[in-house]
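Hey, can you fold this one?
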Amino acid sequence: MGQLSTAEKAEVESYLEMHPSLRDELREIERSLELYAGSAAVKAPAHVKERILDTIRSDQSSHVATRVRSSGLWPALAAIFGLGVLLLGYLFYQKHQQSQQMQNEIIAIRDTCNTTTAQLTEEVNLYRQLTLPENKIVPFEPTPGYAQTDLYLHHNKATKKNFIQVRNLPGIAANQTFQLWSIKTDQAPAPLNVFDLPENGLVEVNYVEGTEVYAITIEPDGGSTTPTLQHLIGTVSVTGI
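Sure. Predicted structure:
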């Protein structure tokens, strides 16, 4: 909508280049906003239609009365007039139903637009955090047996935020999940987040002060209190960064 500063616009454009899926979301938002703008167009006052119809009815009644007096065909004309009224009522009913359906569709489009905007805003804010100068990107070291593991930890001591960027994870059963652990010297591993494969490839996880190593294991659904070491898929050291 042209409300960004030059710097903000350049930042968004860089995200769109890095992540093509965001451009698809942006096009969907633009399309929804166009539909919403069309739905909010100014309508003519309701009394205008009634005033026009009253004028038409008045003219028709005058002509009918003149013809009836001259021809004496009042019963036939009355029947025709009655059918016309019924037809007009039916047409107005159909128009009302169509208008109601259109209003429902507009509401649905508006809700979709709001939801999509919120999701896109959340993703942009997430990517903005990953580009902060203090953010450090450290790869996880896969363990033997899980060489296909391809993960990166985005670690920021200034904001105390951790994000895991998922590029590849081993397959797990429906009753299993991935779990993060915080490891410190002379302490038992502390259980942290449980997570599945994220849709956008990023998942925010706990930042624990003093952690030396973060590790990921495969655990039963819901997580565990102690790690299953035979299912340790990778570790990353954050000491000194």
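The two ends are 41 Å apart (CA to CA). Let me know if you want another pass with a different chain boundary.
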